[in-house]
Amino acid sequence: MTGAETGTAAPVARSDESRRTRLRQLLRGLRARLVVAFLLVAAVSALTTAALTYREARNAILERSQDTAINDLRAQINSLAPDLPVPPGRADLDEFARQLDRSGKARDWDVEADYEGVPGEGSDADVAVPDALRESVEQRHVPAFQRVERDGEPWLLIGMPVTRAHDHAPSKLSVYARLPLRAEEANVEELVNAAQRGALPVLALALVPALFAARGVLRPVRKLRQAAGRLAEGKLDTRLEVKGGDELAELSRTFNDMAAHLEENVAELRRLESNSRRFAADVSHELRTPLAAMSAVTDVLDEDAEAGELDPDTASAVRLISQETGKLARMVEDLMEVSRFDAGAAALHVYDVDVAEAIRKTLQARAWQERVTTDLAADVRARLDPRRLDVVVANLVGNALHHGGEPVAVRLRAPQDGRLEIEVADNGPGIDPEVLPHVFDRFYKADSARARSEGSGLGLAIAMENVRLHGGTLRAANSEEGGAVFTIDLPLRAGEEEA
To answer: Is the pLDDT of residue 123 over 50?
Structure first.
């Protein structure tokens, strides 16, 4: 496969995968579920209505047919029975049955006549009357009927006791008829087929109100999602329009109340944060002048102590005061630097810098050459703020010397993909996994019992802010060989990106 074919196939594959992802999301979405639920309700309702209609229509058709057949048979019996001799012979019964057959040709029924429970010749096999039906007619002298299925055909069996004409008392004569129900069943089957043919159009029509109903439900949900997205972007004045009094309207009211409370709380937090930042900046600024005077005095006293002009106890006290004054001065400078970052007042002043040479100058300025090993790629130039790069490297190396183990190693790797990488590693015990996520937090101390330390607790936080200002990243991890590793990732053109 050529390179052009590979490049063409990859976007096509990504496009197909994107379409499949969108299709899966659509099928799993609330709209699809609402439409399916609506269609299921419509289908269940239609099927239930069709089943009830089928049952009622079938019963009505069959009952009308059997009532008509019973009335016709009774009329024919009342017309022909008075001519029978008493008692009738089998030949008379057969003739009586044949006359009834001829009179019912339109209904295509088969008739059997019994006298004292004895059927006429040759008719028993035609009708095949069940014992229960025969008992109802001959012993209880009541008309009876029964629908049966024989050889896959539906039939109606009718049993009719014959009464005497002069006193309407039960006689010993009874008539049984078998009537085919093929036409009635065909009508019922046609009714079922019509219902089945109408089911798909009904469901198709139900799809339209289902889509409108889903749209009506999803519109406020979609607006709620969009409003939540704007709220997440920081637009705390976002509100929803409330219409109606249903559950979705109540949800919109709840969202508006939540957004209002959130806006109030965030405004209060911002006010408090602004006040705290202003306080720290003001305090730091006010401390600079007296600290400058104190530093000048301690410098003079340090010179006297070094010259031996002070007694040992006074000289020791002077050295302690000098150390604490220097520590306080560094802390004030760090606080002012952090305040500038918080206020967004920190700015980059970028130049074309030889990165390896800048790192060497940082180590030389602090006399760390003997304690730090370097592996610096040559001819690595980048547009950086050299002062801020100095602060980052100095803070990381100083942290490694104070809290890690010597020797500390600084590595500069050759740029790749327009970015350069600097590593600062030590040979100490490493960073506790529980502490690792907090190493760049301000004033964080791994040992809470340690009330005092040589630093301000802001060095790593300031290093992180300076790296971010360049558009880079700063990561902390533990090396497999032991010790902590801090990795700086910077763009080669930080000044242009910042501009």
So the answer is: no
Q: Determine, yes or no, domain membership for 14.
A: no
Residue 448 tokens, joined: 């809470």
Global pTM value: 0.48
Has residue 40 been placed in a domain?
no
Classify burial at 87, counting beta carbons within 10 Å of its beta carbon; exposed 0-12, middle 13-18, buried 19 or more: exposed
pLDDT of 488 over the 80 cut: yes
Cα-to-chain-centroid distance, residue 281: 46
Of 489, 465, 463, 321, residue with least CA distance to 411: 489
Range of the domain at 285: 248-343
The one-letter amino acid code at 467 reads V
Of 458, 456, 472, 457, residue with least CA distance to 385: 472
290 phi and psi angles, rounded to 5 deg: -65, -35
Instruction: Give the pLDDT band (50/70/90) at residue 15.
Output: low
Residue carrying structure tokens 């269940």: 44
For residue 243, the SS3 value is coil
Angle, CA 350 vertex, CA 348 and CA 354 arms, to 5°:
135
Helix/strand/coil for 210: helix
Q: Tell me the HSE value of 212 on the side-chain side, using a 13 A CA sphere.
A: 4
- 355-365 and 386-403 helices, crossing angle to 10°: 50
Helix (H, G, I), strand (E, B) or coil at 421: strand
Instruction: Tell me the C-alpha distance between 425 and 484, whole Å.
Output: 6
Instruction: Report pLDDT digits (tens) over 290-308.
Output: 767 777 777 777 777 776 7
Helix (H) / strand (E) element for 158: namely: strand 153-163
**Structural domains in the chain (count):** 2
Same domain for 486 and 373, yes or no, is yes
Domain end call among 319, 343, 367:
343
Cα–Cα distance measured from residue 97 to residue 155, given in angstroms and rounded to the nearest whole number: 19
Angle, helices 30-80 vs 90-103, to 10°: value is 130
Domain co-membership, 327 together with 377: no
Rounded CA separation 240/222 (Å): 11
- The closest alpha carbon to 262, from 229, 232, 290, belongs to 232
Q: Give the H or E element holding residue 205.
A: helix 182-232
User: What pLDDT is recorded for position 436?
Assistant: 86
Residues 255 and 333 in one domain: yes
Q: What is the pLDDT of residue 359?
A: 92
Q: How far from the centroid of its chain's Cα atoms is residue 238's Cα?
A: 24
pLDDT in tens, 55-88: 777 777 777 777 787 787 778 777 777 767 777 7
